[in-house]
Amino acid sequence: MCRWLAYLGEPLRPATIVLDAKHSIVAQSLNSPLGAETVNGDGFGFGWYPTGEDSPAEPALFHSTEPAWNDENLRELTGAIKSHLFFTHVRAAAGPPIQQTNCHPFRYENWMFMHNGAIAEWPKIKRDLTVLIDPSLYPHVLGTTDSEVVFHLALTYGLRDDPLGALGRAIRTVEEIGNKHGTQFPWNGTVAISDGSTLWTTRYSSQGRTRSLFHSADIPSIREMYPDVERLNAFGERAKVVVSEPLNDLPGVFVEVPESSAVILDDDGYRQEQFLAA
């Protein structure tokens, strides 16, 4: 459906991986070998947390309905700023129209959210899910995607205090309502969420056949495997990427995230746990 990338680590110019990697997210927008669609040209989004003591807590967003490969502003922006945590998403629209308010990532206060996948038969269950959103949050739903509704449903269920628990409750609600409407496998998706310091990502589908998701190995291990690759000097010791598809062809650099799993990145490093496992 789409492709996305999330980075957490030492401040980095996003262009280093968004544009310059062999299989960058922009390259994947043109040719996505592991995606449900080869081309993801229905708009894109870039969200980042500004770096520095006086920086605001809220992330900044740049959305465009142009294909990522055709947007000069994305090149200018990702080459000019530095950020310790950023999201990039290229979209293949599955029904909702191509408009800026439907481009990921989505933002609420200091939180960012993006999703690759879909709610099956979304028009059937859209109303039932939307009315469950807390009335105080509903005005912040600006687009028409299933992803944005799930984000605000998770906020309703306590995302700010328990991100994985709230997201899990939102997805279970999608499954329950979908099943009531006769949909056998309502949910499919990989999700990234952040509050500006921690990154939570998940891979789960009702059918157990989720879109692809990978995380990078730790930088010291990669340098040990590939001591002659000068490009690795651009990354700090804590740099980590979670991405829909590997950014290069070097064996061992990217590791597939298992089905029904969550990957958490924070100041303590990397950890993985089960997510909505049967």
UniProtKB/TrEMBL annotation:
**What does the UniProt keyword field contain?**
Glutamine amidotransferase, Transferase
One Pfam family name is GATase_4
In terms of PROSITE patterns, this protein maps to: GATASE_TYPE_2 (PS51278)
**Stored SUPFAM superfamilies:** N-terminal nucleophile aminohydrolases (Ntn hydrolases)
Query: Which residue ranges does the record assign to the Glutamine amidotransferase type-2 domain?
Result: 2-278
Q: Which GO molecular function, any one, fits this protein according to its record? A: transferase activity
| PANTHER family attached to this UniProt entry | GLUTAMINE AMIDOTRANSFERASE DUG3-RELATED
Name of this protein: Glutamine amidotransferase
Q: Which organism is it from?
A: Glaciihabitans tibetensis
